[in-house]
Amino acid sequence: MTRSATGIIILLVLASCACGDVVYTRDGLTYEGKVSRRDGKVVVQTEDKTIELLDDQVLHISTQQVATQPATTQPSDVTTQPSLGRWQFPLRDVRQPEVIVFSLMRSLAARPGGPARPAVRQYIRRWQIAAHDRKRNIGQQRWVAPREFIRRRQVFQRYLAEAEELYKQIKHKSAKPKGKDKPDTTAAQAKAHAKLWGAAGIWADPLLRDFLMALAWVEANNLPSAQKQFARCRTEAPHVAGFHQGYGMILLELNQPLKALEALTQALRLKPDAPAVVSLALRAAKRIPGSQTHNPIYIEAATLLRDHVAARPKKSRSDRAGGIQWLMPGKPWRVASGTLPTPPYDRLVFTQAVAVPVGPSALLVDAEAVADALEIYVRIDDRTLVPAKLRRRSSRIGRSDTTVTLTLLTLEDYVFTPVEIAPSDTLEKDQPATAHGLGRFEEMGTDLRTIDGRIATAPEGALSLTEGLIAGESAGPVFTDSGMLVGFLAAKADVEADGGGPDRLIGADELKDLLKQAQRRSFSFTRTRKKKLTKPKQAEGQTFIVHAISPEILD
């Protein structure tokens, strides 16, 4: 790495912390301690010794200690962060202001009085401003505006271009006659690897930055470090197939076929039409010794692979092209040797909602929670997550009221028992009813919340529920004691509205168009998937959690 490139990365990383750093070196070693700079060197003060490293030896510095709150958004008259109540979570895990706004709104609603209310309201307003300005946490509690994402994207592209040019020079030198005159390209390769590290380390979003760092380690052939990076990614975002793919690929290279098979099986469940992952999983299965073939991991994978191999499609021209095709949300990212992919989006947003089966293959769900999603998954049970698609609106079906912010999802491999609908005119006042709430963003927790209430009548005559959703929750279904669907509580996910928005019950009468469309079978999956499907499985239950992955481009 050049001295200037190293200096930029170190200054960026050290800007918001003073200790608890991890220094990664070009030869694969790591040092943890307090990092400082002295006479153009990187100095690491560990518990028992001081280590001095030249700039060219350092690939990356990762900070481990984070601040409790961003100084740039701290209200002037509040010296400590207001409590987030029983929904409290570490701020270091929050990537966007909306999550903090909703959590503070919940805290405010839970304490009807008290001297802290004005301070909490002011704090909410500060984070609402941050949400309006589209500020995002890029790690170490550094909240930046879109212009910083743009700047870092430009630096990323410059570093990447410099790395590609270095690799071209290495390739040209390597084409010279071998033997005594064979050129030594070790130093040039180290510079090229350092440039890739510079590019990966400058990406603004922490999750995609970790993934790019993992790819840079792969390019440098440092598999243990790549494994650690992929492991962090799949823990942070378990619904991204590419993270499981990378982890499994590295474990296979490290001769851990059983663990590799488990990760690759998970990738294949998320991306069923991925020939490259099928090939990797088959390789892992063949390398597992006979003594481990009774392991549940192997048995489950063998069953899944048997189905895929039977309907295995012919490889397309793109599949036969060079490089690795990474199964990232949206179109796969193809990466050739000697470079990194340029992500088509700045970051990923992970949302969720509660869905209800209203047709043999259709689920009714909050439309805003899955809007513009690259990937949508439905959780059938604790172990099963399957892809879903937005149902296309039929031209023969009338448009629903614009206030009905619900939509339909289609699953191909599963069939449902549709819930019975409770017409509004059959409901009685004070009749018991149960609703279900779930935070819009996965960072707010993935546990389903049960709400016990009674049917009531709003002043304008519309139906309502005596108990409602809380700030930040997606639209939630409401059932009678007998299990009939009353309707949906409208989402309370408006970051600028008090409490996330008004309470409103969308009754069955407003859902007629959607319910009519749900009765029609309509698949939007590929022909390959249709051929693979033999007999759909029965999914049991009245509610299912839906996970969506959407792109965000900050410009």
Task: Describe the 3D structure.
- The protein has 555 residues and is of the alpha+beta class.
- Helix content is 35%, strand content 22%.
- The protein is built from 15 helices and 23 strands.
- The longest helix is centred in the first third of the chain and has 29 residues, at 146-174.
- The two termini are 30 Å apart.
Supply database-style keywords.
555 residues; alpha+beta; six-stranded antiparallel β-barrel; six-stranded antiparallel sheet; 15 helices; globular
The biggest beta sheet, please?
6 strands, antiparallel, barrel
The coarse overall form would be globular
Low-confidence stretches: 1-19, 64-89, 316-320, 394-401, 523-533
Q: How many helical elements?
A: 15
Strand order of the largest sheet: 10-11-14-13-12-23
Report how far apart the termini are: 30 Å
Overall strand count = 23
Tell me the radius of gyration.
Answer: 26 Å
Strand content: 15-25%
Short description:
The chain has about 550 residues and is an alpha+beta fold. About 35% of the residues lie in helices and about 20% in strands. The protein starts with a helix and ends with a strand.
Write the layout of secondary structure elements.
Layout: H1 3-14, E1 21-25, E2 30-38, E3 41-45, E4 50-54, E5 58-63, H2 97-110, H3 117-132, E6 136-137, E7 143-144, H4 146-174, H5 186-202, H6 206-219, H7 223-236, H8 241-253, H9 257-270, H10 275-287, H11 296-310, H12 317-320, E8 324-326, E9 333-335, E10 347-359, E11 362-366, H13 367-370, E12 375-381, E13 384-390, E14 406-410, E15 414-416, E16 432-437, E17 449-457, E18 463-465, E19 476-480, E20 485-489, E21 505-507, H14 512-518, H15 527-532, E22 537-539, E23 544-552
Parallel strand pairs: 15-22
Antiparallel strand pairs: 1-2, 1-5, 2-3, 3-4, 6-7, 8-9, 10-11, 10-23, 11-14, 12-13, 12-23, 13-14, 16-17, 16-19, 17-18, 19-20, 20-21
Helix pairs in contact: 1-5, 2-3, 4-5, 5-6, 6-7, 7-8, 8-9, 8-10, 9-10, 9-11, 10-11
